[in-house]
């Protein structure tokens, strides 16, 4: 039996050992199962032989877990993961119980198995494998937070407070996997985010709609404000919104030009019913900024007829940001825009902000990830991504800890994170774990 087959078989043999972890509903948005999850992981890190296991909770929020394993070299690699998951609703769309791991047709179904418990499970089983086969080739540190799914409001404070303990040479981010063309992604950064609410009130009570002859309508007022933010082609009209966008470095631009976008597969996967809003989707996914209405609420929307003028209207937004945009600055620019266009009565509420981050593709750690991925998946089987279209608190690790950051993992584009029937594929779990085995082995020799 080859070493590759041995490792892959070991991974699948021990995957069920973590089913109890998948059964715990650690839902940060609902404050459910957090203590149980933290204790389960604390016990697991200890059982695996960590030389240090700590629960950080002195700065508020859900506890942050820290664990350290000693290896045979002076190199230290830091893993970032999160133990919290999304709520399972809508429950009637699940084909199995969300918190009962269900293996079927070469897939494992469970809430959180793709985002992000499966990634951590893969890494912990590898720790166990190395412990039983001569020891870890390098030192490993784990930081596992419990509020990623609600915007990581405290992780920046914990990273700052524990900077010395988190010292390492490089960081592997929470996860990754294969794209729509089944190419394994090496992703070197994350977009940032600004999340905020918008609200307007035009009266103290809903009015009879006949009074629309003279009374303002909160819903229309909100719509008018929204229309001032973007034009019909999707350009954001807020002055200064695009000013701080950092151009891609030559290596990142080259990688972007070599990437592929499978429009037909994307449309099929998500059931898109309208044309794409851009003719450069890869450019926009990588270094494009967005402003998205997440939801709108106003007036009566139930069955039948109710002829009223809504007194209140609300909308929720997020803006995906790229280097070097900052969420606090963008928030202030939006406030200034509304005031300048006569919408001083529109109230804004800042919810969440995370800075973007991007590691140079010329970094030696990034190059090592690429080399190992080519070995495992083939030269034509990988995709180098300057940064993901998604968001995470990576900037704290890149900027404050001064670490190169790479996202790789065991997923694929059809995992369904945050939705019903979230799952991972057995083959991806085996292959992604073998990739990580080879990465740890090689990096330990640097």
From TrEMBL:
The organism's place on the tree of life at top rank: Bacteria
Residues in coiled coil: none
Keywords of the record: Hydrolase, Metal-binding, Protease
Residue ranges of domain Peptidase M20 dimerisation in the record: 189-344
Keyword Isomerase: no
Pfam families assigned to the protein according to its UniProt record, in alphabetical order: M20_dimer (PF07687), Peptidase_M20 (PF01546)
InterPro entries in the record: Bact_exopeptidase_dim_dom (IPR036264), Cyt/Met_Dipeptidase (IPR051458), Peptidase_M20 (IPR002933), Peptidase_M20_dimer (IPR011650)
Protein's name in the database: Acetylornithine deacetylase
Species in which this protein is naturally found: Ligilactobacillus pabuli
């Amino acid at each position: 039996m080859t070493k590759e087959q041995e490792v892959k078989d070991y991974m699948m043999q021990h995957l069920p050992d973590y089913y109890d972890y998948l059964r715990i509903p650690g839902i940060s948005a609902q404050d459910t199962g957090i203590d149980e999850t933290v204790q389960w992981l604390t016990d697991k890190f200890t059982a695996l032989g960590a030389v240090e296991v700590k629960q950080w909770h002195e700065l508020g929020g859900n506890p942050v877990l820290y664990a350290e394993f000693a290896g045979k070299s002076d190199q230290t690699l830091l893993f970032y993961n999160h133990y919290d998951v999304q709520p399972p609703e809508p429950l009637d769309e699940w084909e199995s119980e969300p918190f009962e791991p269900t293996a079927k047709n070469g897939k494992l179904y469970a809430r959180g198995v793709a985002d992000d418990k499966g990634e951590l499970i893969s890494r912990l089983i590898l720790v166990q494998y190395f412990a039983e086969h001569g020891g870890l080739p390098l030192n490993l540190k784990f930081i596992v937070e419990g509020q990623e799914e609600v915007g990581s409001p405290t992780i920046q404070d914990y990273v700052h407070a524990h900077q010395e303990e988190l010292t390492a040479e490089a960081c592997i981010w929470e996860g990754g996997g294969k794209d729509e063309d089944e190419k394994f992604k090496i992703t070197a950064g994350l977009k940032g985010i600004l999340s905020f609410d918008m609200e307007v009130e035009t009266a103290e009570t809903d009015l009879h709609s006949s009074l629309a002859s003279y009374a303002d309508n909160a819903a229309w007022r909100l719509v008018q404000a929204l229309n001032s933010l973007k034009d019909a082609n999707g350009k954001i009209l807020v002055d200064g919104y695009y000013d701080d966008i950092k151009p891609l470095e030559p290596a990142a631009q080259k990688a972007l030009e070599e990437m592929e976008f499978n429009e037909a597969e994307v449309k099929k996967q998500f059931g898109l019913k309208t044309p794409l809003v851009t003719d450069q989707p890869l450019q926009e996914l990588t270094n494009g900024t967005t402003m998205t209405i997440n939801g709108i609420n106003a007036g009566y929307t139930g069955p039948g007829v109710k002829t009223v003028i809504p007194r209140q209207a609300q909308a929720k937004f997020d803006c995906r940001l790229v280097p070097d945009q900052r969420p606090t600055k963008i928030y202030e620019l939006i406030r200034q825009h509304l005031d300048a266009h006569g919408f001083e009565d529109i109230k804004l509420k800042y919810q969440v902000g995370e800075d973007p981050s991007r590691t140079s593709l010329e970094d030696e750690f990034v190059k090592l990830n690429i080399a190992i991925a080519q070995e495992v998946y083939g030269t034509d089987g990988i995709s180098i991504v300057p940064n993901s279209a998604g968001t995470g608190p990576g900037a704290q690790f890149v900027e404050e800890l001064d670490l190169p950051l790479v996202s790789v993992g065991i997923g694929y584009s059809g995992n369904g994170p945050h939705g019903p029937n979230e799952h991972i594929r057995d083959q991806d779990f085996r292959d992604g774990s073998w990739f990580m085995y080879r990465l740890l082995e090689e990096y330990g020799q640097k």
